[in-house]
Amino acid sequence: MTSGPSPRRVLICEDSRAYATALSRFLERDEEIEVVGIAPTGEQAIADAGRLEPDLLTLDMQLPGMDGLQVVKSLMGSTPLPIVILSAKVARGSEQAAEALAAGALEVLAKDMLRLDKPDDVWAQAMRSRLRRLSSMRVARPSIAPRRRRATPSPAAAGIETRSALAIGIGASTGGPPALETILGRLPADFPVPVLVVQHMAPGFIEGFARWLDHKLSIEVGIAAEGDRATPGVWFAPDGVHLLLTGSMRFALEPEPEGAHRPSVDVLLGSLAEAGGSEAVGVVLTGMGRDGADGAAEVRDAGGVLIAQDEASSVVYGMSRAVAEDGADLVASPPEIAAALSALRPARRGT
Fold first, then answer.
1. Could you give the C-alpha distances from 313 to 316, 317, 342, 346, in angstroms and in order?
2. What is the pLDDT of residue 91?
3. What is the CATH number of domain 155-350?
4. Looking at the chain, which residues constitute the CATH 3.40.50.180 domain(s)?
5. Contact 62/41 with Cβ under 8 angstroms?
6. What's the pLDDT score for residue 144?
7. Cα–Cα–Cα angle for 184, 189, 193, nearest 5°?
8. Where does 8-135 sit in CATH, by number?
9. Which residue, 318, 339, 351, 33, is CA-closest to 156?
């Protein structure tokens, strides 16, 4: 008789003993998860990570002494492992959580999303399943390029620099924040083409991520608003609605469900294909699943440009793989993607 796969080993870093105990019980309702330790401080979590070799670390952001962001930076710089941030203060802590994601944490969740009081409902089972999947992710120290440095377009990008762009749509999920920081950080402050972004993220954190990027990067970064004109800069889809570009170069926000994600990369890229035709540019980065594949096909059918992140630089080669295998004009690393985007010429009707 053969035994099943070994349980995924989880280390909890949480200064509230009561919450840590409840979280441990919640996680271990799944036979494929084993909680191997509870660390009340960041310093202890770093020591335990080296000693216990967990598959996943759940990390509170607000800790005595070393805070969660410092723990992420320390571990990702020495012994990288999958890290999920648990935050009790969404609005106040969202920018710090955003920086933790850019430093290499895989995901950030509000503590009340776990619903520890209902450990056996469908939502709880889905959450544990997601944590199991995250525990198997391949992570490495983020390689974030200096934001003012521009990469030289690779030979594979030949031809893209001769294309014009009305707007660029970028979609990302797990592992997306470091890739986005690299790409957007290499675009010049006066980049003339609007960049629309869907980043899958837990509710309550996208605004903090956009604010953090706006403070850090030279290019303007903000949240798209209904009816606003799509001007040069980087515009993120808000929580819970789809972001579309209209033919009059204005943002439209749609709350209607579409597939498994809202906002959806498919919806964004589909709208760019309709509005921009051959001057639409779609970029699909790291992430689980296939969101973006159908929208990318619409961009390709309209004659636009398609770019996918390569496997070597992706935390999860899922979303970008689907686009690469269906036919992308360029499959490349984030610095190479930034170089290709920088080489695009603005469309006349988009100026």
1. 9, 9, 20, 28
2. 57
3. 3.40.50.180
4. 155-350
5. no
6. 46
7. 70
8. 3.40.50.2300
9. 339
Please, what's the largest Cα pairwise distance for the chain?
68
Is 289 in contact with 281 (CB distance < 8 Å)? no
Residue ranges, comma separated, of all CATH 3.40.50.2300 domains in the chain are 8-135
Looking at residue 229, the DSSP 8-state letter turns out to be B
What is the number of other CB atoms lying within 10 angstroms of the CB of residue 33? 21
Q: Which residue has the tokens 């994601």?
A: 101
Active site residues: 173, 200, 291
Where b means 16+ CB within 10 Å and e means fewer, 71-110 reads: bbbbbbeeebbbbbbbbeebeebbbbbbbbbbbbbbbbbb
Cα angle 107, 293, 83 (rounded to 5 degrees) comes to: 10
N-terminal to C-terminal alpha carbon distance within the chain? 68
| pLDDT tens digits along 93-128 | 578 888 999 999 999 998 888 889 999 999 899 999
* pLDDT, tens digit (0-9, with 9 covering 90-100), for 273-288: 999 999 999 999 999 9
Rounded distance between C-alpha atoms, residue 249 and residue 272, angstroms: 10
Instruction: Provide the pLDDT for residue 146.
Output: 43
Helix (H) / strand (E) element for 90: namely: helix 90-102
Distance CA 234, CA 189 (A): 11
Among the listed residues 182, 95, 105, the one whose alpha carbon sits nearest the alpha carbon of residue 143: 182
Predicted local confidence at residue 307, as pLDDT: 97
Collapsing DSSP states into helix, strand and coil, what is residue 156?
Answer: helix
Do 104 and 80 touch, CB atoms closer than 8 A? Answer: yes
DSSP conformation class of 342? H
Radius of gyration of the chain (CA): 20
**pLDDT tens per residue across span 245-259:** 999 999 999 998 766
Amino acid present at 202: A
**Which three-class secondary structure state does DSSP give residue 234?**
strand
Nearest-angstrom CA–CA distance, 197 and 284: 10
The CA-atom distances, in angstroms, between 291 and each of 31, 172, 260, 264, 305 are 30, 9, 8, 7, 17
